[in-house]
Amino acid sequence: MASKNVALAGATGNIGAAILKAFLDSKDFTVTVLVRSDSVAKATLPENINMREVDYSKPTTLVNALKGQDAVVSALNHSYLDQQRALLDAAVSAGVERFIPSEYGSDTLNPNSASLPVFAHKKSAQKYLEELEAQDKISYTIIINGPFLDFGLNHGFLGLDLRKKQVTYIDGGITMFSTTTLATVGKAVLGVLKHPQDTKNRAVYVQDAALTMKDLFRLGKQALGAEGWTEIDGGKTEEIEQKSYEMLGSGQKNMGVFLGFLTSAIFREGYGGHFQKPDNDLLGIEELKESNIVDLIKGIAATQAHE
């Protein structure tokens, strides 16, 4: 039986907002948004939404907010992942059936990616979920979708800088990787909750497209014209990853360090960045055509031009 009453944590973040929009657009679910009592971002939420204030340091507030919920969807960003265990414990206490942890990224079930320090919180959450499931206290689903295509294009994270008309190749730009838009991740969450038995206690994989950096460059030229682009060699993932380990070993914990690890998770061969058997059909997801990606690039570039 599909879950109907769903609590969403982290609804004001990039992925949380996309998941919330999917819930509100579907009309198939009654969604309750969990917000911290001291959050200023809650003012950005849609009017008339069902909202419960919680304090992650006070378990009773979480348990009370989760009573009567069939599922909990965590979209807590990396800054708050240490609070996810409190949310999970409260879900168990409240009798919630399904928990979707905050993953929404690289294949953390791949041994090579799983060993990267950037995923330590996620691996800890997976281990705890497996322990609780083994005790029949709750079930779970992990959603793995690769890097966000729209977010990555907007911020130049996938090698293609639309503002500068510049492409930076990693490992020569020929490695295939799976990528998904924020909106499609939202749809995938709904797909999981509509198929609880088929998605129970496992990871599901979703992608809008499987591309190489050279594919993105080709589509970028179709969208913005072939003239004026610069191509740069961004180095090898093995060397970038090693540099991140060296920086981490010296005590550095800035975003550049962790982006180096993410680069390997996405682009390095053997790290699971290209999904071999996506669950798109099960989740009701249709992959994007190249023409859709060209239109996406045009739209992002047009928005950037007016910023």
From TrEMBL:
<dbReference type="InterPro" id="IPR051609">
    <property type="entry name" value="NmrA/Isoflavone_reductase-like"/>
</dbReference>
<feature type="domain" description="NmrA-like">
    <location>
        <begin position="3"/>
        <end position="225"/>
    </location>
</feature>
<dbReference type="GO" id="GO:0016491">
    <property type="term" value="F:oxidoreductase activity"/>
</dbReference>
<keyword id="KW-0560">Oxidoreductase</keyword>
<dbReference type="InterPro" id="IPR045312">
    <property type="entry name" value="PCBER-like"/>
</dbReference>
<protein>
    <recommendedName>
        <fullName>NmrA-like domain-containing protein</fullName>
    </recommendedName>
</protein>
<dbReference type="InterPro" id="IPR008030">
    <property type="entry name" value="NmrA-like"/>
</dbReference>
<dbReference type="InterPro" id="IPR036291">
    <property type="entry name" value="NAD(P)-bd_dom_sf"/>
</dbReference>
<dbReference type="Pfam" id="PF05368">
    <property type="entry name" value="NmrA"/>
</dbReference>
<keyword id="KW-0521">NADP</keyword>
